[in-house]
Design brief:
mainly alpha; 78% helix; MFS_trans_sf; 490 residues; globular; Growth Hormone, Chain: A; single chain
């Protein structure tokens, strides 16, 4: 009898208790990611309306559209360090609820703007809120989920970002600008209503010495019958790893932490080097530059949003079964092939190496290639790059290091985009596509030989592997993901 009870308790621990509350909390927090997707894709389908002066008569020029995007990114960069401090002081949940305030202020300023500089300031303020969600949502999702479903729950974040892109694409096309801005304001209201009643992060509760509150959070997330003893002990041990270090950047003295920062930052950099900012954010410009009509351009933006949203749903089903590395390798492989084909097409199109008749026969190549790019990036690269930082850092430094990686993320997006624009103007736009293809190959190498597989592992296990360099050159023959998953099930 005692053996059966012991086996039953072990099964409950392995499965992480009742999963429904975790999924509910994961969905609630990641509704905030829709706000990020909307902010990133805000100009995608309203650029022509802005240039026509449909927002309070303000005439927006092409360079102004560039600054509308850049100002949001600057706001994201400015906010990362204050958010890092807030996450470890007031906690994950209050920080995210506060992050909605800049969105309300920013979109309200846009509605009543009478000059383009007011729009710039509004986008800067919106960036503060976007940074809050990009730092907090994956962090909170990873800390409430059991390791058996952590990848699935954290994957909600990127899926909801993709839904935000689709939301902006559709409503930006269908609605007048002011109504579209009001539609953008609705989403943070929905987030607040859904997330307000969710439990706080048990990791932060333990970190601040509120053990009883941490137990209550674990019971709310796992069910009242869940044996939280082992999980609570694990959180305490992980937080005690470096309890004497109090300086904000003191953890950078640890070589293992530096390796983790390198891994998470190189993935974030690679997602821009393979063309994410240009291809995903400026879909309409990419399609139009291939010589397609305005009708095709508008529909391609909406279809792109649908493909991204559908592809980002795939990891939710399979990432905890097949592993993160596999998704990375497949994602980079797809972007390698699709960008190489687009590079060849641009070479023939821009450099007049083919007749118009030949180009008409080949016009399906850019559309099909873009569709595969959207799917490969959304299912693999973008999703895994977002979750890496919250899976490889131990609990005592996870919030701060996540914010450091987000600072690098937003900074590199501006730098890489600027470099690629100048490169395209100087050497031709086909050069950019060949660069995207080259860095996709680099990504495949990084994914196979450097990326630390985190599937079915606690974060401290992954960190210890990186500290001892056991993650380097690990292959599926050494650690089969599917077999590891099945062993945990039995």
């Amino acid at each position: 009898m005692s053996k059966k009870c012991e086996q039953s308790a072990r099964e409950r621990m392995l499965s992480g208790g009742n999963r429904a509350p975790v999924y509910a909390a994961g969905v609630a927090v990641c509704v905030g990611a829709i706000c990020n997707g909307i902010a990133l894709a805000w100009t995608t389908n309203i650029s022509k309306k802005l240039e026509a002066g449909q927002l309070n008569g303000i005439i927006i020029e092409q360079m102004d559209l560039h600054w509308i995007g850049v100002m949001m990114t600057i706001g994201c960069c400015v906010a990362t360090i204050p958010i890092a401090i807030a996450l470890d002081t007031i906690g994950r949940k209050p920080t995210m609820l506060i992050a909605t305030l800049p969105l309300y202020v920013g979109y309200t300023l846009i509605v009543f703007a009478r000059h383009k500089y007011i729009i710039f300031v509004a986008r800067l303020i919106i960036g503060l809120g976007v940074s809050g969600f990009s730092c907090c949502c994956p962090l909170y999702a990873s800390e409430i989920a059991h390791k058996s479903i952590r990848g699935r729950v954290v994957s909600f974040y990127f899926m909801f970002v993709s839904i935000g892109f689709l939301y902006a694409n559709v409503f930006g096309w269908l609605l007048p600008i002011k109504l579209f801005v009001f539609a953008c304001l609705i989403v943070p209201v929905i987030f607040t209503a859904m997330f307000f009643f969710q439990p706080k992060s048990p990791v932060h509760e333990v970190q601040t010495g509120r053990i009883h509150q941490a137990i209550s959070a674990l019971k709310a997330l796992r069910g009242s019958n869940y044996d939280f003893t082992a999980e609570l002990k694990h959180i305490k041990l992980e937080l005690a790893r470096n309890a004497g270090e109090r300086l904000f950047f003191g953890e950078l003295k640890d070589k293992a932490v530096l390796r983790c920062l390198f891994i998470s930052n190189i993935l974030l950099l690679l997602k821009y080097l393979v063309g994410a900012a240009q291809v995903l954010t400026f879909t309409s410009e990419v399609v139009k530059s291939c010589g397609f009509s305005d009708a095709v351009v508008k529909w391609s933006v909406v279809i792109a949003g649908l493909i991204r949203a559908a592809a980002s749903f795939i990891p939710i089903i399979y990432i905890d079964r097949l592993g993160r590395r596999l998704f990375l390798v497949v994602g980079f492989s797809i972007t390698f092939v699709s960008t190489a084909l687009l590079g060849v097409y641009y070479t023939f199109y821009d450099r007049k190496l083919a007749s118009p008749r030949t180009l008409d026969m080949l016009e399906w190549i850019p559309l099909i290639s873009l569709a595969f790019y959207w799917a490969g990036y959304s299912a693999g690269i973008g999703n895994v790059a977002c979750m890496t930082a919250v899976e490889i850092f131990p609990a005592d430094i996870r919030a701060r290091c996540k914010c450091i990686t987000e600072l690098f993320n937003w900074s590199s997006s501006v730098v890489v985009a600027t470099v690629y624009v100048q490169m395209g103007l100087t050497y031709g736009w086909d050069t950019n596509w060949y660069c995207y293809s080259f860095f996709s190959l680099v990504g495949i190498v990084i994914a196979i030989f450097v990326y630390p597989e985190a599937t079915m592992k606690d974060t401290h296990e992954v960190f210890e592997e990186i500290a001892e360099r056991k993650h380097i050159f690990r292959s599926y023959s050494v650690e089969p993901i599917l077999i590891t998953h099945l062993q945990h099930k039995t």
